[in-house]
Write a structure and sequence with these properties.
Elements: H1 2-20, H2 29-53, H3 63-91, H4 100-126, H5 128-158, H6 162-191, H7 195-225
Helix pairs in contact: 1-4, 1-5, 2-3, 2-4, 3-4, 3-6, 4-5, 5-6, 5-7, 6-7
Length: 238
């Protein structure tokens, strides 16, 4: 039970945090639950995609190439494509998706649905020792990728530039996710050899997630300021 609580608690905290930013028209719990459920389903789809896309690496593969395949091809690409596909399928035509911040909120809930199932599996397998680090890094990473995806998802819906912004939504989420995983996969073999490398890796990952937080909070502010329910002229989109 403690492991289950440790797995789910960071997801709940982040859902509440992003929900509180929906200042002008709160989204109905039923639609948020639909987005979260879509995220859980996207985790299953991602497993199918990752397995179908996997291939054996040649023995001569460099460390950088192996890390790229593991981080982007086997993780970031199938996972973010799966989240995006279910987000589009479940939310794009939903009547409650009617202002800019909604895209971010629904994408975050899809991402946290994905993260909840993934986190349960990881924590149940590896125990409490991994729960804390995942609560600080891996789970927020999924949410922040959701912010990036949702930001452009809303631009695709409300600015008339559908295809270019939908591409940005999925590609930039893949890029952010892939860079995070690449840092871990590339440096992992060296961490056991030196505590200095381990410390460097930890700092680097925290700095990268911190940068994503800064970017994401900026995008949230833009879409909140552009709410159609705000009692002023919409701010300028960037």
């Amino acid at each position: 039970m403690n492991l289950l609580i440790a797995s789910i608690l960071p997801v709940i905290i982040l859902m509440i945090y992003f929900y509180t930013h929906d200042k002008f028209e709160k989204e109905p719990p039923k639609t948020l639950l639909k987005a979260f459920s879509a995220g859980v389903l996207s985790a299953l789809l991602a497993i199918i995609l990752a397995v179908s896309m996997s291939f054996p690496l040649p023995e001569s593969a460099s460390a950088a190439y192996a890390a790229f395949i593991h981080s982007f091809w086997e993780a970031a690409i199938p996972e973010e494509i799966s989240k995006f596909a279910l987000l589009y399928l479940f939310i794009w035509r939903d009547k409650n998706f009617n202002e800019y911040y909604d895209g971010i909120l629904y994408a975050v809930f899809v991402s946290l649905g994905f993260a909840s199932l993934e986190n349960i599996l990881y924590v149940m397998e590896h125990g409490m020792s991994i729960a804390f680090s995942r609560a600080l890094l891996a789970v927020p990473l999924h949410a922040l990728c959701g912010v990036i995806m949702g930001y452009y998802f809303s631009l695709a819906k409300f600015t008339g530039r559908k295809m270019s912004n939908l591409l940005k939504a999925v590609l930039l989420a893949i890029l952010a996710h892939g860079i995070y995983d690449f840092i871990l996969f590339y440096l992992e073999p060296y961490v056991a050899l030196s505590p200095i490398v381990g410390l460097f890796t930890t700092i680097l990952v925290f700095v990268f997630v911190g940068i994503l937080w800064k970017i994401s909070l900026g995008k949230i502010k833009i879409h909140v300021n552009n709410s159609v329910f705000r009692d002023r002229e919409p701010g300028e989109l960037i």
